[in-house]
Structures are given as C-alpha cells and as structure tokens.
Amino acid sequence: MQTDLVAALDIGGTKIAGALVDGHGRILVRAQRPTPAQEDGDTVMLAVEEVLGELTSTPLWSGATAVGIGSAGPVDASAGTVSPVNVPGWRDFPLVERVRAVTGGLPVELIGDGVAITAAEHWQGAARGHDNALCMVVSTGVGGGLVLGGKLHPGPTGNAGHIGHISVQLDGDPCPCGARGCVERIASGPNIARRALDNGWRPGPDGESSAAAVAAAARAGDPVAVASFERAAQALAAGIAATATLVEIDIAVIGGGVAGAGDILFAPLRSALKNYATLSFVQHLTVTPAVMGTDAGLVGAAAAALAGRPSTPVAGVG
C-alpha cells in the first residue's frame, strides 16, 4: 500500500475536480463534475461528494492519508470555511467539516486556489528550487500565493499573497473588493478587454471581445490593444515589485489565461519591472511563465495535504 497518497480537490466556479496524488505529484485517479454554482449550498456540496465518491470507490483509496482542498475564495482556513465569490450558495460554508465527514475523518488541509497553484509551481513547476517566490494567476481575476524561506506561506486564513488586491493606483477605478486601483482592476482579462473597448478597439468579424482577442490584435499591431496590455503589464510590475520589496522574493511565476498572451504581456512587464524593482535586493527578480497548466490546482492541493501531515515532510512543500 502506498503511504504517500493523498486526495486533492480543486474547487472553482466552473468545475469541481478531484484526484488521488502520490508523493511525487503524479495524478493516479481523476474525477470531475460541473460546479452547480447558482444552486444552493447543499447542491454544490452534493457535487463535491460525487467527486469524492468516485475517488473512494477505487482500490487505491485505502492508501489515502489526507485530503487537500484548493478552493476559490475567500477561504478561511482557520475556521475551515469557504465563501467563493462565484458560488453564492456557499457563505462561510463548513467545507472542511463536510469533507472530513465524507472521507471517514481524514485530516483535511484547506487553502485558497492561488495558494494551491503556488504550491504546485514550487513543488513541481517554474518556482522549483526557489526558496522565496510569488506565483500568480492572471485570468478572470488576479490571485496569488507566496513561498517564503522554502515553505508555502498561506497565512492564518489561507489567503496570503493575494496580489490582485494590492492598490497600484491610489485614485483609480473602484474595485469590486471595495478598494481603488487594485492590480486586478487593471490587469485581469475582462479589464484588459474593457479598457481596449473603451479606447476604441473593436472586435474582429467573429465578435470576440476577450483578452485573448485583444492579445491577437496586439500581435497584429493594433496600437490600442498593445496599450491595453502595456497598462496591465505596468500594474502587474508595480504589484510584483511591491511584493518583492516587502518580502524579498527572487522569482515571480505568472500563469492563467492572460499569461497565454506570451510576449505581448511578458515583454512590457519585464520592461516596466525595471522602473519599479529598483532597490539592489530586488533588481535581479526573475519573471517567468507558469508551467503546471490545468492540473496546478490539484497538485497544489495535494502538496498542502502532504505538507500538513506531521509524519511525512515532502521536499519543497513543507
């Protein structure tokens, strides 16, 4: 029987994914359900239970020693509750308690989805070998997590490193979080597209007005599209530099759909970073794309579960 096997859940507004993952980060069994995001809390939990049911019915389940959960947030790891913005039926929902009941009392570790992706990139991905790192997801929102001193640093509630809600424009647009000028309000995919449209960019014949469409226009030389990505890159650079100056990270890893723009995002980001990361101890900060892809949430949740077990320290995830 494997003794380094854990269950992992990756819970978002679109899908609930589950897996059995070994101590090397290999996914051995998978299960998935759509998230019934607009239904009541118990209906959403039923989908989680169906995913877990697929995992518990496999012969490998007997070797599982813990459960890791990476969830859309806010999460409160100290209370074991989740309140995902895009799942209104879950408000202070006791997810840890409910999952523990379904899995026969196994230990459960809860972290935010940005922290989960950070754990994955540090354990198996682009931040491997770095003791101090920021990993980010730039997509519909902007999230992130920190590795400090070689260890994942989720903070007391599991939300540390949430770079999307650092303000980089003091009198900027109001953000849904209640603050102004947040990184997310400038650099998220929908806001890149919104700014391009506001400044005169128009979609092509297919009518697609996403950040990916803006990126395609930027690659074709559209100056408004280029400017919208440059503005997003500037906001990201300011947020990354602020984080690096505060806690001395040496690498920032960026994933998510917006990072798929490639050099349309990364070239102006690296250029802008020189204007913000100016002190000697942050001048050599590296910015690089994430490599873990769509499995990052599951692998990161597994890393948290493995690290949470007192008897089994795992290199890079402790």
From TrEMBL:
<dbReference type="InterPro" id="IPR000600">
    <property type="entry name" value="ROK"/>
</dbReference>
<dbReference type="InterPro" id="IPR049874">
    <property type="entry name" value="ROK_cs"/>
</dbReference>
<protein>
    <recommendedName>
        <fullName>Glucokinase</fullName>
    </recommendedName>
</protein>
<dbReference type="Pfam" id="PF00480">
    <property type="entry name" value="ROK"/>
</dbReference>
<dbReference type="InterPro" id="IPR043129">
    <property type="entry name" value="ATPase_NBD"/>
</dbReference>
<comment type="similarity">
    <text>Belongs to the ROK (NagC/XylR) family.</text>
</comment>
